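Hi C.,

You asked whether I'd gotten around to modeling the 102-residue construct. I have! Everything is below, sequence then structure, no commentary in between.
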Amino acid sequence: MNFAEQAAVSSDRLVPLTDQLRLAVAAYLARFTGSSREHTESDLRCYLSWCAQRDLDPLAARRPHLELYIRWMQEVRDSSPRPCRGGSRSRQGSTGPVSSTA
């Protein structure tokens, strides 16, 4: 199942994806394979859901939005470090699909 199909059947709030966003997601995911791609898809679903819950266009997000998202991952969701995916696997130092230097 690809990212667009997973977003469409998510049990969480559905994330409306524009064509521009679909292209951006596809381009970003194209560099990953295997489990790295799966983890990145999960991170993106989490980020896109967070944006949708706040009526924020993910492509319009700026540094303050990304800092809020990272804080939400760390504090509100008590990130350790995979808040949006079940299971016990973790990646050290991961805060999600965004960089704090963006």
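If it helps when you're writing up: Residues 1-14, 86-102 have pLDDT under 50 and may be disordered.

Thanks,
B.
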